[in-house]
Write a structure and sequence with these properties.
The chain is mainly alpha-helical. It is built from twelve helices and three strands; from the N terminus they run βαβαβαααααααααα. The radius of gyration is 22 Å and the shape is elongated. The N and C termini lie far apart (about 50 Å).
């Protein structure tokens, strides 16, 4: 397993040169599942990001999912199970993996490195400790400080959002779009949270100047972020124009007409 060469195990994910799991990968698994086990145990297949399986690939898997050959197990991992075909979901047993409690996650993270500002990274990782650890190892804390300083400067009027957008274009658009989405969600949750829990939302620590922005505008901007992210994933937007269009509204307290939502 460590070497990635176990004869009775297959891990299926989106290839680096593609955006989906295709029918050729699915057919390969179907053929492999018909073979007997090499080590007289179970044959196991894991589909990572199973919601990225194409319709053709999903249809080719239906028979195998319904009647797997011999001692075999198929596991479909998905962050968006609703995106799976109904025919796929109906053939699977749903097992939900919830995030651990915040305090438990922080205790575990401190055992990995006690000198890190884990509460902030855990917030940015949406409560997922393994992701927070990966973000720390990738140096995301510095990226977070850069984004926070730039956004605060735009809100206060000390930086031009178009100039900032030129700097942010150096990062993958998915990175800063997700960061902004997390920040806005934190601000919204802070409004609704009990005082004792508001610290978990990190509202003041992230963007001090944004705390008093109108709540309705925050919700509208969040919808715009989600719509922009979906369109960018489909390659339907110019990244340079999108970056500026997303940052400019902060200069006017998010008082603008959303541009990426469909009406």
């Amino acid at each position: 397993m460590t070497g990635g060469s176990h004869p009775d195990f297959r891990w299926v994910s989106v290839p680096e040169d593609r955006k989906t799991i295709g029918i050729d990968q699915a057919r390969d698994i179907v053929d492999w599942m018909r073979m007997t086990c090499f080590q007289s145990g179970y044959k196991v297949v894991v589909f990572d990001d199973a919601d990225m399986v194409t319709v053709e690939a999903a249809n080719s898997l239906l028979k195998t999912l319904e009647e797997p050959a011999g001692a075999s197990l198929l596991m479909l991992i998905s962050k968006r199970p609703d995106a799976l075909l109904a025919t796929i979901r109906s053939r699977c047993q749903l097992v939900k993996f919830c995030r651990p409690e915040r305090e438990a996650a922080l205790r575990w993270l401190k055992t990995q490195d006690d000198g890190v500002a884990w509460p902030r990274l855990l917030f940015l990782a949406n409560g997922a400790p393994l992701r927070a650890l990966a973000m720390h190892r990738d140096g995301f804390a510095e990226t977070d400080r850069r984004f926070s300083a730039d956004l605060s400067a735009i809100i206060s009027g000390s930086k031009d959002p178009v100039i900032v957008s030129l700097e942010w274009q150096k990062y993958p658009h998915a990175v800063w779009l997700e960061w902004l989405q997390t920040v806005v969600l934190g601000l919204i949750r802070a409004r609704a949270a009990e005082p004792v829990k508001s610290q978990e939302c990190e509202p003041v620590h992230l963007i001090p100047n944004a705390v008093n922005i109108n709540l309705g505008r925050l919700y509208g901007y969040l919808d715009d972020l989600v719509a922009a992210r979906q369109r960018s994933e489909r390659g339907a937007l110019r990244t340079d124009l999108m970056t500026a269009a997303i940052l400019i509204p902060w200069a006017c307290g998010l008082k603008y007409r959303p541009i990426y939502q469909d009406y």
